[in-house]
Amino acid sequence: MEEQLREELKSLREELEALREWRTQFEAAVKNFASGTKANQAEVTEVVAEVIDRLHAVEAATAAPSASAAGDGHQPWSLRATEEDWRRLSAWVDWLGKHYAPQLHLRIWPCWPLHGGVTEELAALYAAWRAATEADADPAREGSDLAYWHQMWLWPTIERIRQHYMFSECEDDHSHDRPGRPTDTTALEKRMAEAEAERRRLEHAKYDYFVKTSPGYPAERPSSLWRCTAGRDEDWEYLSLLDWQWHRAADTNVKLPPAEAARHPVTADRAEELQADRQGWVRYWARYVDEEDRRAGEQPVSVVRRRRSPERIYDEAFKATDEWGPTQAVFDFFDARPSNPPYLVEIDATEAERLLTELHGAKGATAL
What is the mean pLDDT of the chain? Predict the structure, then answer.
């Protein structure tokens, strides 16, 4: 009997040991499965994120209104026109109303800049008039251009404006046979501001903007401004701090953008702020004869400045001839090799302007 019990106990112990080994193998299999699932999940998450980013880029490109609606990316006159173009058109419309003095129901009301279609019609009419008058003034081309303009352009355009646009209700002071009133300058300024804002929005939508940072040049005061095709790491351009224009890096000695670790994305509005603040890119120093002169309270002898543009570093000193010219002083100041480096004290643009006025009587000398 005891022998039988011992055999059964031994058998139970062997089964228990087998169960423990099986549990260990099962736990290992579960852990491996979980790890593989987690890795697969991370990979799937990364792929999904990339697809979503691409989708957002496509949506952003297709959501920009009116740029392609105007015809393969061509903008209407109101978005292409400069401030001078607007003022010339305004003066011509005023001249047209005064010179021709059309009947009341054909007058161009002063609020025309606020009517998009009317503006485009008048710009086209003005362009046709310029072409006709130039042809008429050329003895070699003298002919029927002006007559054709009156018949085919002037009155059909005026009548079309009054008939097809919400424009006839704009008159609030009925009067007969009098010259047209001058353009509403408030409306003109408002429309120019709106057009400029729309131009900037369309321009910004084409790019992603970045700043380059480095020691001494944090993101708040970076060393350069860059942009590339929106949603794509290609067609890089940089803002030159020498001529303040955008240049395609591949077409210059710069060739490539900053390393990814050195560039940081910024919004289009921030990029516009940086581009407008030219002084923010410039460092100024007051130059003294030596440190002893400065400690003694002596005036600096000149002002020097540096622009770290992507294509080259540009150092200048304000000369006795009351103009900026190239200098080696800033380079020597930072270079450890010269035995007698210049003594420079960094100052801001406001202090530089004050010193230049005091030392040279030159006002506005820091302008860029």
Answer: 84
